[in-house]
TrEMBL record, chains A, B, C, D:
Pathway: Carbohydrate degradation; L-arabinose degradation via L-ribulose; D-xylulose 5-phosphate from L-arabinose (bacterial route): step 3/3. One of its GO terms (biological process) is arabinose catabolic process. The keyword Metal-binding applies. Residues 6-194 form the Class II aldolase/adducin N-terminal domain. It comes from Fusicatenibacter faecihominis. InterPro entries: Aldolase_class_II_sugar_metab, Aldolase_II/adducin_N, Aldolase_II/adducin_N_sf. GO terms for molecular function: aldehyde-lyase activity; L-ribulose-phosphate 4-epimerase activity; metal ion binding. This is L-ribulose-5-phosphate 4-epimerase. SMART domains: Aldolase_II. The keyword Cytoplasm does not apply.
Length: 227, 227, 227, 227
C-alpha cells in the first residue's frame, strides 16, 4: 500500500502542476484490485501541505482502513465507479475551468478533431442532474451510480471520462497517472471545442473515419503510435 | 496590531500571487473588532515594494491612527462595510479581470454550478451605479453605503461578495485571508459563468437543491467537507 | 545620453516581462527634449540578447546619431509623434494580443469602467487605414502623421494611446516607463472590454460622472490617489 | 548529421517552451538536402526525457537510417512535404490550441492585420478532410500529398503553413528553427483573428496594400526590417 499511496500522492500533485485545480478543488484516487482497497486524497487539505502519509486508504464498503484524515467528500462517487468499472485503476475529479464550463452548460463535448479522437472515442457525455430525492438520500454515492448507469451499455475504456451537469468532470484510466492524463486531455479539448464553435457556429463533428483512424492508431491491436 | 499588520500585509501579497491585480489595482484590509481599528494597504504603493510596516492603521471614524502613508483611496468603502457587517474580519477590492468584466457588463453572476454554490449562496449581485450627486458628495463612502443598503435584508455571510457596476468586485470573509480566498473563487466562477453562457446561450442556473447541497455540505451545522 | 539609453533599455525589457510582445514585435523609445535626441530599440533584435549599448540614438530629422544597429522600422512614426506632442517623453508600440484584436476589428475601445477611466479619459480611438498612396509614399512617417492629425484638436495627455486599424497600438507617457505602464493598462482594458461585450451585448459606456470621478481622482490639481 | 540532430532536438524543445504542445502532441523535423536525409522526433516520447541521441534519421524513401526509436507517426507527412517543397529545411506539426480550433472549425485564417502579413502572405488555408479511402490507404502520406496538391500552383515560401481540417496545423521554414518560429506566429494570429471576429463580426481582411507593405518590408529584395 505504501507504493500506491506514493503513486496517488504524486498523481494528486500533478493537478496543480497542470493547472487543473484551484485551492483544493480536485482529488485523485488509485486502487489495488487484489487487496480490494483504494487510496484517495484527504478532504480539503491544501496541495502544498499534502504528503504521501496523508493519503487515506478505503475499502470497497466505504470504511477507512488507514489514515489520520477524512477522505475526500467525493469518496463515495469514486467507490461506485471502481465497483462497476473493473478494468480501471485510477479516478480523477476536478473543477478544471473549461470542462466545468461545459458541465455547467449541460452539454457533452462533440468530437471536433483528432486531439479528442486520440483519447476519447466520440462525444464526451454530460449526465443529467440528480433529482432532489437522489441528492438528499446520498448525493455522492448517487453521483457515482448515475455515471455507472450511463455507461452500463457503453465502453468505459473507449470513453474514459464524463461531465456531471452543473458540477464538473470525472476521468479515469488504467492507473492514477493515466486518469490525470485524461483529465488534462479533457480540459484541452473542452477549450478547443468551445473556441471552435465560436469560430464556426455551424461546425460539425469530425468525420467518423477520421475519428476511427486516430483512436485506433493509438489503441487496440493495430495501434502504431508511440514506441 | 503588529500581528494584524503582518497578516494584512501577507493577504495583500496574495493578490499578485493569484494574479488578481495589475500594478496597484487592489487592496486588502483586516479589522481588530476589540480595538475598533482596521489595517489597510497604502494607496498606490507597488506590491513588490510593500512591507508590513507600510500598512496603515485606521479607526472607524476614518482617522489614520498609525502609518507613514495615505491609506487606500477605497478606505471609506471598507469602513462602511466593517461598520455594517459585524461578523466579518477582512475585505478585498480588486479589478480582477473576469469579475470586473461582469461588473462592467452590469450583470450579477448566476449560480451555474457547484463551484459557485460551494462559497456563494445564489447569484452574486451587481449593485447599481451611484448617482452624480452620490459620486460628487462622497464617492468612496457612498459606494460602501450602497453595498450595505443592498444587503440590509440579506445574509452577507452566505453571499460574501458583490460587484459594483462599471467598477469591480468587493469580497469579504472572517479575516483578510478568507476575503482573499473568496476573491479568488469569485474570479474563477466569473470566468466559468461567461464561458458557460457561450457554450449554451440558454443555460439556466443550477437546480436549487444542488446549490443547497453544496453550500450546506461546506457551511453550517451539518457541514462535512474538510477536516 | 547613457542614462537615457539605460532607461529605454529597461523599459524595452518590460515588454516581455508584461507579456506584451512575441519575438521582436514591439519597441520603446524615450526622448531628451533639451538635446533634441531620442533613443529607440534596434530593429529585429531579440529581447534576450538586447543590451543598453544596442540602443540607437536618433535626432529629430531622422538621422542616426549613435549606435551600431539600424533603429526600429517604426522610428519614423515615433519621430512624428515626438515632434507634435511636446509634453511626452516616451512612446511604445506593440502587437499585444487584445489591443491588436481591437485594432484589427477597426473599433475604438469604449470606456466600460473605472479601470479604463483611471488612465484614459473616454474611448480609446482607432484611426483609419492609410491610403495606398500614403503607404507607398512613406508608410511609417504617415502613420505618425495620421495619429498626430487625429489628436490635433484633442488632449493627448488625457488619452495617452491610440489603435492603428489592422495594425496595433501606440501608447505614450511622460517617460518611457509611463508609456509602458499605459501599454499594460491598454492591454488589460482591451481584454475586459471584449469580455464585457460578450457578457452583455447591450452594454453601454460607464456614466460620464463616474469616468470623471476616476480620471480626476488620479490626474490634475485635485488628484488624491497615491502618495 | 550530429549537428542536424542537435538542431532538430533544440527546435523540438522550443515547442513546450512556447506552449505549443501538451504532452507529446507535436513534432519538428529538419532536412540535410545534400545527404537526402531528414531528422525527426521519435513517436510518443516525452519532451522532458528527450535527448539529441533520441532523434531519428530517415531517408526520403521512408527508411529509418539511424535511431533506436520509431519516428513520429506523422513522418510520412513530413516526407511528402520535403519532396515537394525543395526550398524548405524544416517542418513543424502541433496541436496548438488556437490554430487547432480554426482547423476543427474548418476555416482558413483571414489576414486581419499586419502581424499576419509580416509572415504569411494572405489567408492561411485550411485543406479539406481526406476521404475514407485516402485515410484507410495511407493516412499520413496522403495528408502530405493533400497539402502538396493544395500548393501546386501557389508559393509555399510566402505561405509557410496550412491547417488540416479537424486535425491541426503544419508550418515550415528554411530550417527547423524558422519552422517553429512560424508555428508560434500562426498560433498568435489564430488567437487574434478569433478575438477580432468577436469584437467585430463584420470585420474584413486588411487592405491588400497594407498586407503588401508589411510582407515586403520583411521579405524579398526590398526588405528593410531587421539588421
Amino acid at each position: 500500500m505504501e507504493e500506491l499511496k506514493q503513486q496517488v500522492y504524486e498523481a494528486n500533485m500533478l493537478l496543480p502542476k497542470y493547472k487543473l485545480v484551484t485551492f483544493t478543488w480536485g482529488n485523485v484516487s488509485g486502487i489495488d484490485r487484489e487487496k480490494g482497497l483504494f487510496v484517495i486524497k484527504p478532504s480539503g487539505v491544501d496541495y502544498d501541505k499534502l504528503t504521501p502519509e496523508d493519503m487515506v486508504v478505503m475499502d470497497l464498503e466505504g470504511n477507512r482502513v488507514e489514515g489520520h484524515y477524512n477522505p475526500s467528500s467525493d469518496t463515495a462517487t469514486h467507490l461506485e465507479i471502481y465497483k462497476a468499472f473493473p478494468k480501471i485503476g485510477g479516478i480523477v475529479h476536478t473543477h478544471s475551468s473549461w470542462a466545468t464550463s461545459w458541465a455547467q452548460a449541460g452539454r457533452g463535448i462533440p468530437c471536433y478533431g483528432t486531439t479528442q479522437a486520440d483519447y476519447f472515442y466520440g462525444e464526451i457525455p454530460c449526465v443529467r442532474n440528480l433529482t432532489k430525492e437522489e441528492i438528499e438520500e446520498a448525493y455522492e454515492k448517487n453521483t457515482g451510480l448515475l455515471i455507472v448507469d450511463y455507461f452500463k451499455d457503453k465502453d468505459y475504456i473507449a470513453m474514459p471520462g464524463v461531465l456531471c451537469k452543473n458540477h464538473g468532470p470525472f476521468t479515469w484510466g488504467k492507473d492514477a497517472f493515466e486518469a490525470v492524463h485524461n483529465a488534462v486531455v479533457l480540459e484541452e479539448v473542452a477549450k478547443m471545442a468551445s473556441r471552435c464553435e465560436r469560430i464556426n457556429p455551424d461546425v460539425k463533428p469530425a468525420p467518423q473515419e477520421l475519428q476511427d483512424k486516430h483512436y485506433y492508431r493509438k489503441h487496440g491491436a493495430n495501434a502504431y503510435y508511440g514506441q
